[in-house]
Amino acid sequence: MATLRPFRAVRYSPKVNLGDHVTQPYDKITPQMRAAYGARSPHNLVHLILPDEARAAEMGVDKYTMAARLFRQWCAEGVLERDARPGFYPYRQTFELNGKAYTRTSFIGLCKVEDYSRKIIFPHERTLAKPKADRLSLLRAGRVHYGLIFFLYEDDGAAQSIIDRCMAAPAVATATDDYKVKNELWHLSDQAAVQSLSAALSDRQLFIADGHHRYETSLNYARENPRDEHAQYTVALFLNIKSDIVVLPTHRSVFGVAGYDKNELHRKLGESFDVKRLNTLDEVIAATNAPAGTVCIGGFDGSAFFSATLKGDGPMAKAMPAKPAEWRELDVAVLHTLVIERILGITPERVEQEAGVGYHRDPKEALEAVAGGRANCAFFLRATRPDQVCAVARKGEVMPQKSTDFYPKALSGLALYALDMQE
Question: Which among 5, 15, 217, 415 is least surrounded, fewest beta carbons within 10 Å?
């Protein structure tokens, strides 16, 4: 099963303000966020994970080579330092969401990359070639893993108890991010505790929550370098699925529907759903939180709100008979299969090209897309549960695009894995 290993992380010096140097994962950084991160410090991690092409051109190199040079320079200057002893890194994130306080504890370490066919590490979404090529070029140039893959694992309590004991001591690093999430890091280097933590997950399977592109990039790099022991591992965050996990829903706006007709939408919805008119967005969101075993999708057709409750499992079993029940029961699978594809005519190929469907964490943004004439209609979902992610992955299936939004994200820059700086 999963093979974990401690490592000597490269971390920002305690002499610098960590909050000015860490970032959200690279694929969550907008151009505006990149500019803001870059302005905070010339040593902000964004200069390494999203290197500036114009600056690289001035140096006469490509952006990946520039990032590798900057990393080595920052190490030489003492901005980045390698820990003296290998270890794991317990990681606590404390935050509030919708008036409720949360504490999420995990740990960071190395994991041996495995082909999915071995049934040790499971994905739940498809990846795209372009982002993987970009990340692979960055890894080849610098031989550094800057960001974290986010794994879920099932714990019997052994791993969590080791993490909790370590976190009784003062943290070695602390940073509050842009979303007011307090991030604290510890260094677990006691040899007996390290061995116990590795052993606790040695018979476990791992499920990718976030970081599919980073994981497959690591796997591709390992295949390119079969004799390089360090290349066979990647750096990841490991989170107990029994933890206080927050998954946010991702709502949809649909645009570019040829001959869109709201009356025809409702007529076709009625074939598979019980449709009910609603008055407000709040009523729609409340309706989506249906009892277990019931799928209810919220909607706005351009002029009115409504809910659509699936008429049992028959419509999905008929539409997708080859899919397992675990997949057919997903709210997001029902929406994409029966509504977006079959009623509105947005093909999976268009969805993969990010054409025809917009994604919104804030339901008001989806509503505004329709009100502003940028979309024909909008749909609202409840969040996918972590256990659903694992159940679908175990069946060898992948979910529709943007099915999960784990919150908060694991910061990049807390613990870097430099392949050439290990023992």
Answer: 15
List, for residues 283-331, the tens digit of each pLDDT value. Answer: 999 999 999 889 999 999 999 999 999 999 999 999 999 999 999 999 9
CA distance 83 to 109: 13
State whether 34 and 158 are in the same domain. Answer: yes
Within-domain flag for 31: yes
pLDDT over 80 at 337, yes or no: yes
317 domain-assigned: yes
How far is Cα 191 from Cα 384, in angstroms, rounded to an integer?
38
Measured at the alpha carbon of residue 19, what is the angle toward residues 16 and 25, in degrees to the nearest 5? Answer: 120
Whole domain around residue 33: which residue ranges?
Answer: 4-246+407-421
| Phi, psi dihedral angles at 379 (to 5 degrees) | -135, 150
Same domain, 234 and 279: no
State the Cα angle at 263 between 258 and 269, rounded to 5°. Answer: 90
Which pLDDT tens digit goes with each residue over 194-213? 999 999 999 999 999 999 99
Question: Domain check: are 258 and 350 in the same one?
Answer: yes
Tell me, yes or no, if the pTM score tops 0.85: yes
